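Q: For a teaching session next week I want to show students how multiple molecules come together into a single three-dimensional assembly. I've collected the sequence lines for a complex. Could you give me the predicted structure tokens for the whole thing so I can convert them for display?
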Amino acid sequence: MRDLSPSRREFLKQGSGFIIGALAFSSGPIALLAPSKTWALELSALDESTGRALLKFARHLFPHDTMEDAVYAMVVKALDKDAGDAGLKKLLGDGVAGLDRAAGGKWMAQSADRQLVAVMALEGSAFFNKVRGTCVTALYDNPLAYAHFGYEGSSWQKGGYLTRGFDDLKWLPDPPADASPPLRRG
Amino acid sequence: MATYGTSDDSVVVVIGSGAGGGTLANELCQKGVNVVLLEAGKRESLATFVNDEWPSFGQLAWTDKRTTSGTWRVARDFPNLPAWTCKAVGGTTTHWAGASLRLQRHEFKALSQYGRIGDANLLDWPLTYEELAPYYDKAEDKLGVTRTHGIPGLPGNNNFKVFYSGAKKVGYRNVHTGRMAINSRPRKGRSPCLQIGFCFQGCKSGAKWSTLYADIPQAEATGRLDLRQECFVTRIEHDAAGKASGVVYFDGDGKEQRQKARAVCVACNSIETARLLLNSHSTQHPNGLANSSGQVGRNYQRHMTGSVYAIFDKPVRMWRGTTMAGIVTDESANNPKRGFVGGYEMETLSLGLPFMAAFLNPGAWGREFASAMDGYPNMAGMWLVGEDMPQETNRVTLHPTEKDRFGMPIPNVHFDDHPNDVAMRAHAYRQGKAIYEAAGAKRVILTPPYPSTHNLGVARMAASARDGVCNKWGQTFDVPNLFISDGSVFTTGGSENPTLTIVTLAIRQADHIAERMGKGAL
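A: Of course. Below is the structure for the complete assembly, covering every listed component.
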């Protein structure tokens, strides 16, 4: 860090950083969408180590083993935006420090099991609730998550599912016409 | 489209443009009555609706702060969102699923059919099914309800196929794609259903009935409707003789306005209806307008609800097509042998991925929850909706200290489940689980009630002024030219989705108001 110019140093002190990651599953649904195998999240309020800890914390809260870090990064992105507020930034920073305390050392360096014990120790805290609540909206409401879960999202622009499989389930028998009248065309 | 002066006291003022108010305004305009329709929300359209759950919620939902109390789980999970209703032209008819069921004969006579139930404030409706039947007929025709008036049912989607298969294996007999106010073929200028999904987010094809694009344009075409959007009514005023004289509201610019009226009709979706009456207290009405009975805000009913989601080992993709795609009606009879009075309906339901994360088990985290979400594409879902017991203590009150941006006290919604509600929910969960297990479910998840979309009973109809707020026409006992025109008037809730009955009562009320005006009695 010695080689940084003062202005760059000042910029970093304000909490800027990047999280850079790579896709873990080269043939998954997200790899098909992504233009490259690496991804980067630019942070404006949080520093990189806080961002990485929050990403890992989100993975413990909602563990989808085959889901890319790139999706969890959406949670960090939302938290980073909220951290523009000084009080929330402190809550998140203190929360990560609290994880270290609960883990009796650097939380990020611990085994997954020990990390989870520290997460459980913070359940119900304002920090925990803030990250959990942000996960609910940020983790499951983005195009990458849609691709991961196979959810198709907005359909009206494709004419809905009338001719695109609203009733394409074949592993059960079709109900009779009096219960489910056939589609009327024209 | 008409424009009336604020001092024009010949107009009927209708507050709220949803199933009750939007219908009433149109029916009155069709009869030559001049109407000012005040709506707190904005006017969206088929073009502006979005197939995206959170942005749509931001566009349509009523998100003004409310508080909650009581032992219901909604108070813990969504402490400031007791209800999921709308602030938009068209009200909650933009959001409703379209299920259009008549209340059953016995449900109009809850007290005499069920008997006295401890802590339940049961009462018979002051009108009968037979009195309402011709109006139900008109409402079904207006809405274009499938399986009525020769309108074919909708084709069932994947979610329905799973539901049907399991329900039949369990032995249910009445299982079909429902009576829905969603066009199965073009009708009355509205398109047929394109199986878009997103029924809750505003129907982008207009196949689902909503006052936004059905009744309100019809009313505008008469030249008698003055629709004022983004106008938030804070008080109803009365004159020395005790008649409603007009309303105070804040327009879109935040400017206070005062509209005179010949009659005032309140249709603000229960919580706001009760709040408006309570906030309109005066020396003549110290406990709130039209509240000599003390029943305004009481007997708040939200239906016994709950959901069952099941995960299968093959794809369902329940989000494809109509949200409420089918029904089992077998449990809607009153059969106290089950351990509770009243009945419930089972109706398919689906949520998109974002809302599933928020509602499947609010507050949950960890591997159990995440693994349920992993099953999302293979999930089928149903909603359980049944009659809940009216209780005097389940109640909308004014918050003692918190006020809205207009300086008016915000509402608090208190709710405790009645033991009958708890017993019914347990039964419904058991039966819902049995349906999905019969269809081959690998895992079944019992989901707690969402914020209420069915908000009923807080200004109920009664035969006597002692027992309720209004008579069988929705006319308040205390103020002869003040009418209640939404689900607040329900004496009891029945087991059916309430919109069809709200529309039916509004059509009937319009007849009554126009007739009284014709006789110079109003």
